[in-house]
Design a protein that fits this description.
254 residues, alpha+beta, Arc Repressor Mutant, subunit A, Beta-Lactamase, 2 domains, 6-stranded antiparallel beta sheet, two-stranded antiparallel sheet, 9 helices, 42% helix, 20% strand, globular, DNA binding
């Protein structure tokens, strides 16, 4: 959350970033008026920000509608290359995927979501179109999210839970805070999270936390998704064992 009273921050820069975030899968090509409505700015301010981003190469326009350009990927280049996502982590996930027989993903905590930063796809196996690098998923109804939440320090976890609308959860997910905390305690005790039809109907998932070895704090989770009923008890147990090994290898790269 931005502290607007902090004299060392640039509110204009923050507004520009919010303009970039207005572009998503649903709103790929939008007008200045639509951007202004999404980010809560007046049209004149929005126009100046959009034109600046256009001149810097982050946006392109066609008959009054704007889209982001590949230039925006430069913003993530330092993160991807600095952590060896493609060179180091991706091969670790590939090996785990081949051992488990399922596509494996690595998600990291970002604000109150989990975002996939690496994913290895096995063409012959089950997957979801929504799983891709950069995809964001909520923490509560997903195995990856719960594996992260369960191992956060109590203050950070409670801060996230305070912002959750438990009444808005589907009937497949725990709908009160006390029951959800019990579920997180179970995840912490067993060292992994599992969900069945809680985020997507008829889809199960297993996830194991990944820790920063230097800080001994959770930074993300490795996970698999599968059709509900696809894995028997022994296959689930084997998958968890291999995911724990994968998580340890990913952790060693940080």
């Amino acid at each position: 959350m931005l502290n607007e009273n902090d004299k060392e921050i640039s509110l204009t820069f923050a507004k520009g970033l919010n303009v970039l975030l207005a572009f998503d899968a649903r709103d790929r090509s939008i007008t200045i008026s639509e951007i202004a409505e999404k980010v809560g700015l007046n049209r004149a301010v929005t126009r100046r920000l959009v034109r600046t981003l256009e001149q810097l190469g982050y946006l392109t326009s066609d008959r009054g509608r704007y889209e982001v350009t590949p230039h925006v990927l430069r913003l993530s280049q330092g993160f991807i290359e600095g952590r060896g996502i493609a060179q180091i982590i991706q091969p670790i996930l590939r090996l785990a995927a081949e051992e488990i027989g399922q596509s494996v993903s690595f998600a990291m905590l970002d604000d109150t979501d989990a975002v996939y930063v690496a994913h290895t796809f096995l063409p012959s196996q089950f997957t979801l179109n929504r799983v891709a690098i950069g995809t964001r998923v909520p923490l509560a109804p997903t195995a990856a999210g719960r594996a992260i939440l369960a191992f956060l320090d109590e203050a950070r976890r409670d801060e996230i839970l305070d912002g959750m609308d438990f009444a808005a959860f589907t009937d497949r997910t725990q709908t009160d805070r006390a029951r959800f905390l019990d579920a997180l305690h179970e995840v912490r005790a067993q060292g992994f999270a599992q969900t069945d039809s809680e985020y997507v109907a008829d889809v199960g998932s297993l996830a194991v936390p990944v820790f920063d070895p230097g800080l001994n704090s959770v930074i993300g989770a490795v996970s698999i998704i599968f059709e509900q009923g696809q894995l028997d008890a022994q296959q689930r147990a084997d998958s968890i064992t291999r995911l724990k090994s994968c998580a340890a290898h990913v952790s060693s790269t940080f």
